[in-house]
Amino acid sequence: MLSPPAFPRSTTDPSVHETRSRHSSASSLSAPVLYTEPQIACQRCGKSDIQYELHYNCSRCDDGEYNICVRCYRLAKGCKHWFGFGWTAWPRYEREAPEGGYPPNHEHPHILIGHRYRRPMTPLTESTTPPHVLMSEDDPKQRVEAGAFCDMCKAFANACYWKCDYCNEGDWGYCNDCVNQGRHCTHPLVPVARKTRTTQSITDTTPSAPSTPRQDNHLAPPDHDTTATTPPLTPKSASLMRGPGYFTIANTIFRPLTFTTVCNICRYPIPPSNTRYHCLKCNAGDYDICTGCYHKPVVASRIAKEDGMNGWRKCLRGHRMYIVGFEDRDGAQRRKVVRDLVGGYALKEEEEMTMRLQRYPPDGGVGLRLLARWAYWPDEGVEDELAFPRGAEIREAADINGDWYWGVYCGVGRLFPANHVTAI
Q1: CB-based contact 313:320 (threshold 8 Å)
Q2: Among 289, 293, 340, 401, which is most exposed with the fewest C-beta within 10 angstroms?
Q3: Residue 413 to residue 45: CA distance in whole angstroms
Q4: Which residue range or ranges hold the ZZ-type domain (predicted)?
Q5: Are 293 and 265 spatial neighbours (Cβ–Cβ below 8 Å)?
């Protein structure tokens, strides 16, 4: 008996659509890809769950899994082959060489790099199979911040990092917000940005993530670091300097920036070679006045003579300002406070009113100038002591009782032990 010829089933056959529909539904309901959430502990003190706060990683020790917390890093504990901060590491490495020198291919000093993971946007779930670990749909590799971080507020600062060559042997710097608001040291600061592989305008205003508002008003203790941050943008007033100059920070190439600030009154750019009046409070510290525009309100009596350039040097809203400029040195433009706040940071408003009846206090205030011979990091939970790195300059200082001083560093005034500093 002949069997009927085999014809391809019609595409209008409803059973075909049902099969395809089932496959489509199964595909759409397939389980999402899950990634193991990092769980990091400090290799030195054992502090757990430091993955979401700033910590320091050695990419060479323990197959790249060697991490320490900020406090241990600041206490100079380092990794297994770490020789010190900044520019002191290599001289120490050479001093400790055995007789006859190091053998060929001997490891050079390791460099620890700041790391921090942003928290996942999706809920964490526990894996169903041992070992039971936390999982997330957000790939941790896409959420890791690595490079330069502000030593004041701990913001991720690869887009604009103000490097100090003196504090902490050159391993020290600030984000743009902290510099604008006066939370920085007294040394010249060079602005740099991480050099990316792709050629892109440094003034691109499209963020990869929203910038984090800064709420800290003092040097954050090494153990207080639970606020998540996201990468800020390079300021619109900044652009990469032309030329071969570069800086190596956190084992990464950074290029120097040049700033052309716009006067907030006449709206004309202020060249880096010109000084400007800078207010730390107006517009969150992003407020500058060129010399010509500041003299006009004083002449027109919009600013009282005693509050003008030869007096308290106040802005139109009554805030004391300092004068800022840039100096060209070593292939970069370094920001320098030419004239500090009249009366310094320690001066209170009520004291200012009293001094109005007497004479103007000096720029930068009164008191001793001290150099930190050793870093000082207060114990956890101590809020009334001043934290500072080695090489810091502390101003407006006063001897309290022979054992303790009071002074100002990075715009903050607090107590600190006398045996950590020496007079300048």
Answers
A1: yes
A2: 401
A3: 29
A4: 257-305
A5: yes
C-alpha to C-alpha distance for 290 and 88, rounded to whole angstroms: 40
Q: Which of 154, 153, 190, 86 is nearest to 412 (CA)?
A: 153
Domain map of the chain by residue range? 34-91+109-147, 148-203+217-259, 262-363, 367-424
Position 204 pLDDT exceeds 60: no
| Nearest residue to 163 (alpha-carbon basis) of 180, 181, 184, 182 | 184
**In 364-380, which positions are buried (b, 16+ CB within 10 angstroms) versus exposed (e)?**
bbebeebebeebbbbee
Given pLDDT bands bounded at 50, 70 and 90, which one contains residue 77? very high
Determine the Cα–Cα distance for residues 172 and 219; give it in Å rounded to an integer.
Answer: 13
Report the phi/psi class of residue 96: left, alpha or beta, with left for phi > 0 and alpha for psi in -120 to 50: alpha
Sign of CA dihedral 203, 209, 211, 216: negative
Mean pLDDT of 117-136: 86
Tell me which residue has tokens 């005693």. 306
SS (HEC) of 66-125: EEEEHHHHHCCCCCCCCCCCHHHHHHHHHHCCCCCCCCCCCCCCCCCEEEEECCCCCCCE
Around Cβ 294, how many Cβ atoms within 10 Å?
A: 22
| Helix and strand numbers, DSSP H then E, in the chain | 6, 24
Given a contact cutoff of 8 angstroms between Cβ atoms, the answer to whether 60 and 81 are in contact is yes
Q: How far apart are CA 360 and CA 279, in angstroms?
A: 19
pLDDT of 214 above 80: no
Q: What is the CATH number of domain 367-424?
A: 2.30.30.40
Percent of the chain with pLDDT over 90: 65
- Candidates 247, 322, 254, 319; CA nearest to 86 is 247
pTM (2 decimals)?
0.83
Pick 228 or 46 by higher pLDDT: 46
The residues, any chain, with a CB within 8 Å of residue 31's CB and separated by 6 or more, are none
User: In sequence order, which residues have a C-beta less than 8 Å from that of residue 334 and are 6 or more positions away?
Assistant: 188, 189, 190, 326, 327, 328
Question: What per-residue confidence (pLDDT) applies to 254?
Answer: 95
pLDDT one-digit tens code per residue, 314-368: 999 999 999 999 999 888 999 999 999 999 999 986 666 566 556 789 999 999 9
CA distances from 25 to 20, 33, 196, 347 (A): 9, 17, 42, 70
d(CA 386, CA 131): 44
